[in-house]
Amino acid sequence: MSGHSKWHNIQGRKNAQDAKRGKIFQKLARDLYTAAKAGGVDPDSNSGLRLVIDKAKAANMPKDNIQRALDKASGANGANYQELTYEGYGPAGIAVLVEALTDNTNRTASSVRSSFKHYGGELGTSGSVSFQFDRKGYLEIERDEDTEIDEDQLFEDMLDAGADDMKTFDDQFEIYTEPKAFPEVRDALLEKGYVFSIDEVTMVAQNPMAVPEDKQESLAGLVAELEENDDVQAVFTTAE
Question: Which family does the similarity line name (predicted)?
């Protein structure tokens, strides 16, 4: 049993790492698209895009993923991409918000609806779950044996920078800001030497819900299937 337990723990950590890596790649893909859309797909003349590309490479994001994001922004091959949001409920009544970027709305809607149905959920109408989320600036700082961070000092620094809240976990600190204050807070903390594993403006559940044990696998499956969809940019839930 101990061997199985050890393998299970290792596999669990690997799955968590893979999930986090997938979220980072999704976030980078959104940043690439946004930067390229705003200033063009040539990094030599678009410094903002160049910074995101460097960040993507540092995160070992596959070249194909980077190019796909740039193609979407440039409308390569005559494609015209639209930004869409899908809302629905997953297992245990957990609200799910899906942000997509697509050149074929019928394909994407059908695929997203199929994923919800596959895991016992249901796609809803516009506005059916979005009211349960707030848009927030989000900064994540990883904690490990090599990272010595004084929690009290970080709390003081983030308040001085203008952040609203901080949550502490065994493996990370999470800092929340108002969207407009996000750039200022991020830059102030960067100047103090903090390093972020994730820094973005995202959707945060107002009232996170505990997921019953017998529904956790189904919900994780739904989120994973949605995130694997090339048209999907981000997935948010009200799960704790």
Answer: Belongs to the TACO1 family.
pLDDT of 17 above 70: no
Residue 89 has pLDDT above 60, yes or no: yes
Torsion of CA 186, 37, 229, 131, to 10 degrees: 60
175 CB contacts (<8 Å, ≥6 apart)? 138, 139, 140, 141, 158, 163, 165, 166, 185, 189
CB-side exposure of 96: number of CA atoms within 13 Å?
Answer: 33
Class of domain 6-74: mainly alpha
**Residue 15 clears pLDDT 80, i.e. is over it:** no
In the 8-state DSSP scheme, what is residue 210? P
Position 203, amino acid:
M
* Cα 80 from Cα 228, distance rounded (Å): 21
pLDDT over 80 (residue 20): no
- What pLDDT shows up at residue 206? 96
Burial 142-165 (b: 16+ CB within 10 A, else e): eeeeeeeeeeeebbebbeebebee
Among the four given CATH numbers 3.30.1330.10, 3.30.70.20, 3.30.70.980, 1.10.260.40, the one describing domain 81-239: 3.30.70.980
